[in-house]
Amino acid sequence: MQELAFGLAFSVGACAGGAWWCLRRLAEARHLLDTPTSKIRSAAQGYVEFYGVLEPVPETLIYGPLTGKPCLWWRFRIEEYSSNGKGRSWRPVESGSSEAWLRLADATGDCLINPQGAQVRPATREVWKGNLRHPRGLAQGGIRGWLSSGKDYRYTEERLHVGESLYAIGDFRTSGGGRQGLDLSAAQSSVIRQWKGDFAGLLQRFDNDRDGQLDEREWNRVRLAAQLEAEDRHRQVSVQPAQNHLAQPRESQPFILSSYGEDDMARQFRWQAAAGAVLCLLGALGTAWLLEGTVL
Predict the structure, then answer these.
(1) What's the number of domains the chain is made of?
(2) Which one of 1, 4, 18, 262 has the minimum C-beta count within 10 Å?
(3) Does 251 lie in the same domain as 131?
(4) pLDDT tens sequence across 94-116
(5) What are phi and psi of 253, to 5 degrees?
């Protein structure tokens, strides 16, 4: 009975997981294909799609952590070769990715990209083996790196470089340049919350009768001063040059940075959706077979 319960849990989980994966990947592919490509200078605020070229971010030097090669973004994984009575496998022991911002440019302008939360698909991917937990120097390339025997660790490093083409889809926002509207009520509330963080300073500025609290008249003065402060801050931001940013959407829309184009990414998502559908079908068949066995 315990084995039957375990089998049912596994098959039902495979069916549900496969269905979820299939629908998720199909939705992501549809987002990519339905979102029109925009130019950076004329892009609307919100969810957008860009094609451009990666350019260096001033005063930022980045090197791949395993190879030491210069790049704009990296991701690495270190695996250790392990064996037990049941078999042999590569076990992940360390991984990480860059958090440095990227700069994407097209013929109309440029945009800074915060890669946190993005699905990054770089074209450059190096895999090699070695005897040390952390490799020293550059990767050993070619067939020699793979045919070397007695290697205990496998290293993988992916990178984005200056001058590479990049497909990007995510949440686009522009600050400065007079394009940012003012929600006066929200801005005023933000200023008041900030001032409340230093309540002693707030009392010093607005507690005229020095009774240690703010009455209604004094609070009205606080609100008026906060409104004037919010308007002044907005004017200062508006006169600054426009600065474009792309980041992870707040909703469940895909955030993708890829060296491959929209069609390639959509094709990959469809293949992954098909794999999810197959897993769902196998899980459903397994569940039906187990339930039929219990009835008989």
Answers:
(1) 2
(2) 1
(3) yes
(4) 999 999 999 999 999 999 999 99
(5) -90, 150
